[in-house]
Specification:
The protein has 4 helices and 11 strands. A hairpin with a 2-residue loop joins strand 8 and strand 9. The mean pLDDT is about 90.
């Protein structure tokens, strides 16, 4: 996505990506009082944030193509391609860092989010080398506490398979603040523990 720009730091790139994703139509529906209407119009967008051979961070084209099971699960999804096609760089030189998407309802990462980034970790490197050091692969979900076309970026949730850490970043007056939520302990493919609480897929 050439008009996204090139960034020296992944945090600057995440900041820009959060604003861009949440500016898309119905990327945040937290302001809609009717739950049926919110469910119907909500949309989820996704993209890769990657590190390229120019030693900059870039974002792939956004997509809002769903996984196709929304009618059954009543959950919004976005099908993120496993790889990026950027003609500016050789395919082997692209290093995948963050799998980005938005949560229209503002909630935390789901079990399917965690499992999806683990699946990507079986395809891509768990940790990539950059000019500033090592950066681990992670799943990121942007959220806004406001809805509509003027939805602002209020933060994002992040899960890192390499460390199993689940964290939350919030933005206040242009400053980012990190909150450590806990470390995920997998019980089996359909359940995990976080801070001694068990979570299962439905």
């Amino acid at each position: 996505m050439e008009d996204f720009g090139r960034f020296d730091s992944f945090m600057d790139a995440l900041d820009k990506a959060c604003d861009l994703v949440l500016s898309k139509p119905h990327a945040s529906v937290v302001g809609i009082q009717d739950p049926e209407l919110a469910q119907r119009v909500a949309d989820e967008y996704c993209a890769w944030l990657y590190y390229a051979s120019d030693e900059k961070y870039h974002m792939s084209m956004l997509t809002n193509q769903s996984d196709g099971d929304e009618a059954l699960t009543r959950k919004k999804t976005c099908r993120l391609p496993a790889s990026v096609d950027d003609p500016r760089f050789p395919a082997w030189s692209i290093k995948y860092v963050f799998a980005l998407h938005n949560h229209p309802f503002g909630g935390p990462l789901s079990l399917s989010d965690l499992k999806r980034i683990i699946a990507f970790a079986n395809t891509h490197e768990w940790v990539v080398d950059t000019k500033d050091g090592k950066v681990p692969l992670a799943m990121v979900a942007f959220f806004s506490n406001s809805g509509g076309e003027g939805a602002r970026c209020d933060g994002f949730y992040q899960y890192t398979p390499e460390t199993r850490e689940l964290v939350k970043f919030t933005q206040t007056q242009g400053e980012w603040f990190r909150e450590d939520i806990g470390r995920v302990t997998w019980v089996d493919e359909k359940s995990y523990k976080l801070n001694e609480k068990l979570y299962r897929s439905r």
